[in-house]
Structure formats: structure tokens, C-alpha cells
Write a structure and sequence with these properties.
Blueprint (H helix, E strand, L loop, with lengths): L12 H17 L14 H4 L11 H7 L3 H18 L6
Helix pairs in contact: 1-4
Length: about 90
């Protein structure tokens, strides 16, 4: 499942919004875990308020999800459904 490292220059905040969800779903899409909660190497638990970590900023959570972890969790679920329907990830 390894491939070349890809760098993406994030210019638009909307791209960052979608990219966070895409990254949190990667281990699920790779069939490594059933949910993003289960992947201990991700900062998803920080997003959910279940762990304190140094690689987390709550800026997006506050701006897009009313500082509500469950709202973000629902967005990730919705993103997964959209991804499953499309079969590919598209950023606008």
C-alpha cells in the first residue's frame, strides 16, 4: 500500500477542510481499521477531544464545525459516503 509521498500546496481553506477529512479516512479506505477512531497514528482523537496532542489545531473545528467534535465526525462520515459513491476524491 505504500506509494510515493505526495505534497499538496493548500491555498484555499475549503481544500484544507476537505483534506483533513480525506486524511482521517485514509486508514479506513486502506482497510487497516474500521473507523478513524481506531487509527492511533492519526490526530483524529484530538479532533474528537479524546486525546491531547501536539500536532493539532482547533482552528478548523471552531470555524467549520462550531467547535463540536461530533459535527466533525458526521462530516467525515458524510465525506466517506461521498467518496464511496465517487470512487475518487475531488477538491474544488
Amino acid at each position: 500500500m505504500e506509494g510515493p509521498l505526495q505534497h499538496v500546496h493548500v491555498v484555499k481553506e475549503r481544500h484544507l477542510y476537505l483534506l483533513s477529512q480525506y486524511i482521517h479516512l485514509n486508514p479506513v479506505k486502506a482497510n487497516l481499521v474500521n473507523t478513524p477512531h481506531d487509527w492511533i497514528y492519526s490526530n483524529f482523537r484530538e479532533w474528537m477531544g479524546q486525546r491531547n496532542g501536539s500536532l493539532y489545531s482547533d482552528t478548523l473545528l471552531k470555524r467549520y464545525f462550531n467547535n463540536d467534535p461530533e459535527e466533525y465526525c458526521e462530516a467525515v462520515k458524510s465525506y466517506k459516503e461521498d467518496y464511496d459513491d465517487r470512487g475518487d476524491v475531488i477538491f474544488d
